[in-house]
Amino acid sequence: MSAQIIYTVSIYTENNIGLLNRISAIFQRRHINIESINSSVSEIENVTKWIMVVKLSEEQMKKIIGQIEKQVEVIKAYYHTEEETIYQESCMFKIKSNLLFDERHIQNIIKESNSRIVTVNKDFFVIEKSGRKEEIDLLYRELNVFGIMQFTRSGRIAVTKDEMKISTMLAALQH
Amino acid sequence: MEAETIKQTHKSSQKAEHISGSEAVIKCLLAEGVDILYGYPGGAIMPVYDELYKYQDKIHHVLTRHEQGATHAAQGYARISGKVGVAIATSGPGATNLITGIADAQIDSTPMVCITGQVGSHLLGTDAFQETDIIGISTPVTKWNHQITKASEIPEVLAKAFYIAKTGRPGPVLVDITKDAQFELFDFKYEKCTRIRSYVPVPKTDKKALKEAAKLINNAKKPLIVWGQGVILSKAEAEFKAVIEKAGIPSAWTILGASALPTSHYLNIGMVGMHGNYAPNVLTNDCDVLIAIGMRFDDRVTGDLSRYAKQAKVVHFEIDPAEVDKNVKTDVAVLGDAKASLKSLLPLLNKNSHKDWHQKFKDLYNIEYEKVIKNDLHPTKEGLTMGEVLKEINTQTKGEAAIVSDVGQHQMIACRYANFNKTKSNITSGGLGTMGFALPAAIGAKMAAPEREVVAIIGDGGYQMTIQELGTIFQQKVPVKIVVLNNEFLGMVRQWQQLFFDKRYASTEMTNPDFVAIAKGYFIEAKKVTTRKDLKAAVKEMIATDGPYFLEVRVEKEDNVFPMIPTGASVSDIRLE
After folding, report:
1. Continuous segment of H or E residues that includes residue B186
2. What is the pLDDT of residues A11-28, one digit of tens each?
3. Is the fold of B15-188 the same as that of B382-554?
4. Is residue B144 packed enough to be buried (19+ CB in 10 Å), middle (13-18) or exposed (0-12)?
5. What ipTM, to 2 d.p.?
6. Which residues in chain B are closer than 8 Å to A25, comparing Cβ atoms?
7. CATH number of the B15-188 domain
8. Do B143 and A69 touch (CB under 8 A)?
9. Residue among B150, B163, B174, B198 with most chain A CBs within 10 A, to mutate
10. Residue B545's closest CA among B468, B478, B484, B449?
């Protein structure tokens, strides 16, 4: 069994009900966990872009890309390693307001981590941070010492360093 | 605004008719050339059935006795005709009963469109009576599926459904239509689908790959072809024959590829796989170039992959890019439609005969003949063998019959020993291994090709899974010939229990009813044969009968199917006894 690597999967699709089921079933059938998933509009009008993070061998990855592309409403699917992409995640922390004043260190953490205070009221404050997984993990560990009321984190969003020739491909398909 | 749009549409097309969604369904089917469909009515599909009643002179609905039977009948129809099979059912249990047939069509690449009724759109997600999430349930086993909640979507979605089902690598499509959409009136206009932006049915063939393939084939000293259903699905039989004859390559088939080349052809060296022929299995591990055409290296074909054709360069002609390198690493993959690829390949090939190499297949065939085939076809023991029944059917149908087999020992025997003169003559459940397939599939096959002799070969186990379709045969007067090879066992499982579970026959022995009486209960002519001397006359009578006929043959209880590649073994470790 070859080594398991983290891959970012980018899938361009039509925007259709049920496609999430179809794509996630491809992973589920093979007993592969999806670490994160995000769906949004893409750079092309009327084309949806999915970003998924999965951990598997390259051989498995290639086969799964084939299965994904086989779906009627999938336009194109790509996979990339960490080095080939620029990626970000976003997270939010809800923390008791009194800590902001009692624990001076928290303010330093917010500053040093480049986090942003979204809102503050008398009971709680909310900070937001975008960054790589490790940065968010670090921030979590630092804040967890003081107590976190709520924490949530988004799926990965990513763009590739190399050009994806999807627009040219789509233009060709129009004829 | 909306009213205006409708007005404009009206103006722009003189042809638009103001009709109900359910009538639109029928008109779509007619536009797609559907003449027969198989199904079962129920609450949520009643508006469509009401239209089927009105259109019964144009489109023939066949009431099966179970929705699973409808799907298998549609499959049989599709497999013998190459056209799209259509099955229709109501919501809830009607829809879930289609799933086995849909899964079977998916794994065996059979073009099929299933239409299901659904509860009214205002009831979706409320656990209404007979509501089931058939889109969710069918997703992993369909090529495409879609739920319609507005009548206006019907023409476009059904046009897409037929296009997707039959193009590229064919497969099943399910369209779920809510009851309100069936009742709703709208302006109907039908346009066939010819393209979907995100869907590439046939990948482009790379000329360079084709040349590389030709080079490998021309330089090969011991080439072996394994072909699959792709040859039949792309109607490439003639091109295939031309290629193998020019290059003189021994060619073996997968179970679904059978009949694309006549059994008697000098380059047809038999079946590969678990119960395939000895020579092609053994020599898979001796060939220098393995050429796979329209097949997908199923585990039943390859045995242990780590010991499969490791010495050979592999060339794969394939329409589905996801199949390339899925199980066996290829050296050259030629993507595209088999018919076009083989046509382009032909002029690139050198003429050859590979006489010495061919002799090796003949030598191994002789070993298989002595150890297995002789005893199967010309038994000297008292009990009847399944093989001699097949031999008798071959003789009396002159190899012209379409053989529809179920799943198990009799299926392997049927595929091994049936003589196929014509293509699309071996209709069986290959990938899914669905017991109960044959009886309803034979109905569909016979109705699609009434000019052909259709003989269903079924075991006593599988027969009882869809035995109720005798009712359909009786009502529709479908002149299929049904042969049940009765060994009073679930024979294949029993064989495994004997070989791998120390003869612990757990739940495989069957106490069977009087099959002849049951057939006669449906007013189907029936006979039972228990001795060799009666076999010939009985088969003769069956073939001579104009209507449906049921023949039960009592065969040896504990016969085994050989050769056999035990699970996990290599193809060259195939056992002859």
Report:
1. strand B185-188
2. 999 988 899 999 999 999
3. yes
4. buried
5. 0.91
6. 139-140
7. 3.40.50.970
8. no
9. B198
10. B478
